[in-house]
Protein: Cyclin-B2-3, variant 2
Amino acid sequence: MFLQHTEAMLVEIDRMDAEVEMEDLNLDEPIVDIDACDQKNPLAVTEYIDDIYAYYKRTENSSCVPSNYMARQFDINDRMRAILIDWLIEVHYKFELMDETLYLTVNLIDRFLAVQPVERKRLQLVGVTAMLLACKYEEVSVPVVEDLVSISDRAYSRKEVLDMEKLMVNTLQFNLSLPTPYVFMRCFLKAAQYDKKLEPLSFFILELSLVQYEMLRFPQSQLAAAAIFTAKCTLTGCEMWSRTCEMHTSYNKDELMECARLMVALHQNAGKEKLTGVFKKYSTSKYGYAAKMEAAVFLEDAEC
Structure:
């Protein structure tokens, strides 16, 4: 028994020594200047970029909604929200809109539903109106109202869309300038030194999260960071999170693990669920068949 106890202690000491060595290696890892390549690009505003993202972090709470807001709705539920978002992702793809537009659309829908009761027969109207507003804010060429009426199978009139637009902007007090997960993704991907595989896979995982009501409990920046972390783990087969990523996201690996595990589950079930808008979109060559990659299931068993 004494020998067994001694051997167990030696194994534990070796494990602890290995962890210390890994931590020392991590501390020796240099932090990359992710904006160095943009110094001569005036559109990158490298002089202000740190202040911009510091502002985004300070204000991201105003983009969030209570994670239980659906309890206040009397005629709709989280499943109806999921159907709406999944459909809007297909509409967004069909209209070839900018990525920013999709994330702002979803943000407007959630912020509006968090304070305004809506009948189920008008939920789709909220969705197309939110997309119209997001297009006006983000796009150069905005779809006309008739296009949105048509894509809704003419369930609503032009007047109904415009009336809902007035109600939404007044309810939200015209506040459209809020950080969404997309703005954090652009910075965090640079920190992760992304390539043609990491970027579409990260966005695939993040868009899966847009559909799920339960993911609203995570801050915008944490969703973005966890999507990239999950994508890196998927591609490498191990837990990968550099000091550069940690510094720019302000999240360490342990802080991302809960969200990452949920994302792995979403990835696993993406092609099996009834709502397959995101899966179909990212199963195309345009997005590098990101949806076809095997999920990082080993994260589900990882220790926090």
